[in-house]
Amino acid sequence: MGLLKKQLPKRLTNLFLQQILQQFKEGLIDLTEAAGQLQIGRTHLYRLRTRFLKERSHFAAKLSGGDHWPDWPPEALAFLKEFLPL
């Protein structure tokens, strides 16, 4: 289930995600159905719902993971270019 959670923005459109969360919020669908349609666990559904309620006008699924490190400083790049023969 963890891999599916990380791929949520790739698998589902934001509109679909918002519709499911809105239906869940209004009680039109229950926890099991909402989590099943999104293919996520209960905990992740509640986290999404909380974020949806806070950021409703600009809510979107976010890609998790990725490169969160800053770029290397120029001195480090210069050193690596000298040190590594490529």
Looking at this protein, list some descriptive labels:
mainly alpha
Q: Would you write up a description of this structure?
A:
With 86 residues, the chain is mainly alpha-helical. The chain has one domain (2-63). The protein is 62% helix and 0% strand. It has six helices and no strands. Helix 3 (14-26) runs antiparallel to helix 4 and helix 3 (14-26) packs across helix 5 (42-54). The chain is elongated and about 65 Å long. The N and C termini lie far apart (41 Å).
Low-confidence stretches: 1-5
The count of DSSP E runs of length 2 or more, i.e. the number of strands, is 0
State mean pLDDT (0 to 100 scale).
80
Structural class: mainly alpha
Total domain modules: 1
Task: Encode the helix/strand succession as letters.
Answer: HHHHHH
N/C terminus separation? 41 Å
Radius of gyration over alpha carbons? 19 Å
Number of helices: 6
Strand content: under 5%
Main beta sheet: strand number and arrangement? none
Described by the principal axes of the CA atoms, the overall outline is elongated
Q: How does the SSE layout of this entry go?
A:
Elements: H1 2-6, H2 8-11, H3 14-26, H4 31-38, H5 42-54, H6 74-83
Helix pairs in contact: 3-4, 3-5
